[in-house]
Amino acid sequence: MSDHILVSVEDRIMTITFNRPEKKNAITSAMYGAMADALLDANGRDDVRTIMFTANGDAFTAGNDLIDFRDNPPRGPEAGVARFLKQITVAEKPIVAAVNGMAVGVGLTMLLHFDFVYMADSAKLQAPFVDLALVPEAASSLLLPKRIGHVKAAEIFMLGKWVNAEEASSMGMACGVFKADELNAAARKTAILLTKKAPESLKQTKRLMRGDLNVVSARMEEESELFSARLQSPELMEAVMAFLQKREPDFG
Q1: What DSSP string describes the chain?
Q2: Quick check: is 191 in a domain?
């Protein structure tokens, strides 16, 4: 288990906490693996009724750690990121998120698989895949337009637009917005309520609401193939170098 992912179980709630605040909770391969293991464990435990994602520091997650991503490119279904994406797709138990700060890239796309999302009033979302010469992942190219419409999704994906908490809530990407010091309590209140519901009824209701998993899985696989190809592209190399050198990329 990575020290950068904390996992605890209390009151039938498994809490998964990003714990790399000095790096804005940027996610490494080891962190993905730890989260995948925790989700798999939660699915088989009778003493876990609900899963809750939180974060330490002032960011939910800045997305992928680009240096780790460059040095440890994910390959195959056993890669940490692939296992994590599979587990959030097939998770049978309700997932609640408390988004305390910025949620970038996979920080945004993972929320599309969660059942309840609460945001601090200072939190904001961004999906800068095109800015990094990549493509969306986690079936988000399917799920986000379905959730908020094509033109709003195009602003987020193609323009890399930042979305603040109030706008995210108004578009149906979050259940509610709270002051930072009230956020975790609000999210945990929902998690506790869920632990008191009939677990099999919750499981079946979530399955029905989610719809055909084959469609989601097929889109995720298509995105993954394109994403992997983009990792070898000259455009990606330029985007990463520009990021590291703190300059605008030149795709000319």
Answers
A1: --TTEEEEEETTEEEEEE--GGGTTPBPHHHHHHHHHHHHHHHT-TT--EEEEEESSSEEE--B-HHHHHHS---STTSHHHHHHHHHHH--S-EEEEE-SEEETHHHHGGGG-SEEEEETT-EEE--TGGGT----TTHHHHHHHHH-HHHHHHHHTS---EEHHHHHHTTS-SEEE-HHHHHHHHHHHHHHHHTS-HHHHHHHHHHHH--HHHHHHHHHHHHHHHHHHTTSHHHHHHHHHHHTTS-----
A2: no
pLDDT tens-digit series, residues 44-98: 999 999 999 999 999 999 999 977 877 777 777 778 899 999 999 999 999 999 9
Q: What does the pLDDT read at residue 73?
A: 72
Q: Domain of 65: which CATH number? A: 3.90.226.10
How far apart, in whole angstroms, are the C-alpha atoms of residue 69 and residue 182?
34
Instruction: Answer yes or no: is 105 within a domain.
Output: yes
pLDDT level of residue 18 (50, 70, 90 thresholds): very high
Closest alpha carbon to 105 in 57, 138, 152? 138
151: number of Cβ within 10 Å: 8
Owning domain of residue 59 = 5-180
d(CA 93, CA 198): 11
